[in-house]
Amino acid sequence: MIGGCVLKHELLKEVPLEELVTRAQSGDEDTQNYLLKKYQPFIAKCVSEVCKRYIDPERDDEFSIGLTAFNDAMRLFSPERGSSFLTFANLVIKRKVIDYIRSQNKYPQSISLDETYDEENMENPTEIEAVRDKYQQEQEGWYRREEILDFKKKLATYKLSIADLVEVAPKHRDARETAVSIARLIHDNHELSEYVEQKKKLPIKQLSSKVEVSKKTLERNRKFILAIFIILRGDYVFLKDYLKGVGQ
């Protein structure tokens, strides 16, 4: 039995990764287990990049979170999203670990806060709070930078850049609200969202019958609407904060 399993795993090495993921999605448990084992170093690396320290698969809870996230990524991955499986899995793992760290109030540092600062020897509570605030700010700053880097990559697939957005963002609040509401409409409509993701452009003709703005306005705000759609479609905690209550 063991020999048969080893033989099957040897054969699986010759199969493209995306095809293996498809097999796992269809219920092939052997392929699923093979991928979970084979990509443990990749999972540990992704988790380590978030935690900013070495991750021990045998001892660290964060690795278990990463392993579960990798399994979720296998289940959720779709080639039509326009990215490779490992790119997608990397994002899912990091987001799940980030959520776990937040829930546990942990810090992604090479050593813990308590090892760096002995709170018992700090007589001033304000000093203790200042240290915690500093680490919290560094942590959130790192998350924000990661989101922006990923957002830039996604923009590039639409032939857009941050500089484009600065230039084309609607100057008036009402215009911005309208543009965001259109992006939300696309995001919530399966047919429209699939069109945008596949074609990397707005479905101007279809939209013109669904919104109360002219084709000219849609075209003028095209880049901005696409950028908001990317944010809504993606796994961006901080960028989505800016959109709360806008265009709804």
Short description:
The protein is mainly α and 248 residues long. It contains 15 helices and no strands. The longest helix has 33 residues, at 125-157.
Largest sheet: none
**Unreliable spans:** 106-124
Coarse structural class = mainly alpha
Assembly level: single chain
What string gives the helices and strands in order?
A: HHHHHHHHHHHHHHH
Give the DSSP E fraction (strand runs of 2 or more residues).
under 5%
Overall geometry: globular
How far do the termini sit from each other? 57 Å
State Rg: 22 Å
Number of DSSP strand runs: 0
Average pLDDT rating: 79
In DSSP terms, counting alpha (H) and pi (I) runs of 4 or more, how many helices?
15
Helix fraction, binned, reads over 70%
Annotation keywords:
248 residues, mainly alpha, 0% strand, globular
Folded structure, characterized:
The longest helix has 33 residues, at 125-157. Mean pLDDT is 79; it is low at 106-124. 24% of the residues are buried. The protein has helices at 2-12, 17-25, 29-38, 40-51, 61-76, 85-104, 113-116, 125-157, 162-168, 173-188, 190-199, 204-208, 215-220, 222-233, 237-241. By secondary structure, the protein is an all-alpha fold. The termini are far apart.
What is the topological layout?
Layout: H1 2-12, H2 17-25, H3 29-38, H4 40-51, H5 61-76, H6 85-104, H7 113-116, H8 125-157, H9 162-168, H10 173-188, H11 190-199, H12 204-208, H13 215-220, H14 222-233, H15 237-241
